[in-house]
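User: I'll paste a sequence; please echo it back and then give the predicted structure.

Assistant: Echoing your sequence first, then the prediction.
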Amino acid sequence: MRFVSFILNNRLTVAPECLVDDPDLKAVPFCELPEFEESPFEQNFDYDEKLQQILFGKMLLLDEINLPLEIIHNHFERGYLKYNPGIRKNKYGWHCNRCGNEKDHLFASFSCFRCKSERCFYCRNCIMMGRVSMCTPLISWIGPDVKWDNVNDLVWEGELSKGQQVASDRFVEQVGKSGELLIWAVCGAGKTEVLFKGIETALKNGYRVCIATPRTDVVLELTPRLKAVFPNTCIASYYGGSEERDILAQLVISTTHQLFRFKQAFNIMIVDEVDAFPYSYDQTLQHAVLAAVKPHHFKLYLSATPSSKMKKEVPSVKIQMRFHGFPLPVPKIVWGGEWKKRLERGKLPPAFLKWLKLQASSGRRAMIFVPSVSIIEKVTELVRKHVEVKVDFVYAEDPLRKEKVEAFRKNEISILITTTILERGVTVPFLDVAIFGADHNVFSESALVQMAGRAGRKKEDHSGQVIFFHYGKSLSMIKAVKHIKEMNKEAGF
């Protein structure tokens, strides 16, 4: 879209070209406008509450706001919203104001119908959220704050373990303060329950809370649990394809990618699985977390496998034992032979096949992790030839991913073959875990620990089986087993 700039009431202001009937004004892409002032705030303006709900704590493209442009611009003129550049030029190149990207190879140009430019530059890094270009402003709300209800009682009658209680108390102490804290808890320690009291305290004090996680599956698991224990709180989940993204919620459960849409929205930011890919490797996702919090904020990190850097730099509280009081299942390392060549010949390794048949007849569910999407269908096809139970597969881009994971939870699928996408956030009782090709370099120490952590998570089934099938022990495998044994030792086992 092109904008024009002009003098109004002795100050420089701007407007979309289509709203100004003056052919003498030069229309340019938004990022080429001269620096202009924000409009004075009109206290008595009868603002549109729907627009407030859409924009409060966010920074959105015009295409994401389902209201007439005239209404949007009227609020700009009254000092209730702000036009921000989508991307801007600096001395090093381009900078994306939404995701923070400054890498030259992640910017491109196209011939743009909207601004009539032959080379309209845009950010490729966050293109999945809608195109941010040199002619698309990002709109943010600077009008009155939303007032939240104080009826946010926690409805939960469970009891915390000793370790959980210590971590919960530390969280509650930090509500209303600035700073950060790491809760370093073993897989299955009950991190979600640890959050309950701190979230309740924050909500009752009128604070806005976000739980951000790198994985959609974790969002889908956490949302119904939190809605159940906070039945009177407005809660919304944000992920690709979510139907709740337009709900103005005091408690938000979001993927880290969806945080690109927020700006200075949250008093408390809880980053779950802080060590997980892609968050731990993508600086723009870390930028999204920083942009989404208010200047005075508190950040809480949750992880079973935090990085060495985080363990050194962030104050922490440690939960060494699972909530049910039993040790973590220690993986069994089993020689699987040259599994790649066997797959090429249309066969499964004998040791894996023996385990598979016993597993299928046990009446228990199994999650089989494979190192690559490229072999997932082949492995699934071969597994189906040898068992009579329902077998399916799932991966990150699977269009039926949500439905398949839900079917697995409901015991409609007995064996689910998956990539590392399900290494976190999925809790299923009576489950055993196998890692096929555990020696592959895609399986890091933390990934193997997390995958092993899927087993034995319920009190009534605390000793699930975990097997690493390999063709030569990797350093990551050895470290993962050592890590699990050490955590059990620290817990007194």
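Residues 170 and 317 are 8 Å apart (CA to CA). The chain has three domains: 2-141, 162-319, 332-490.
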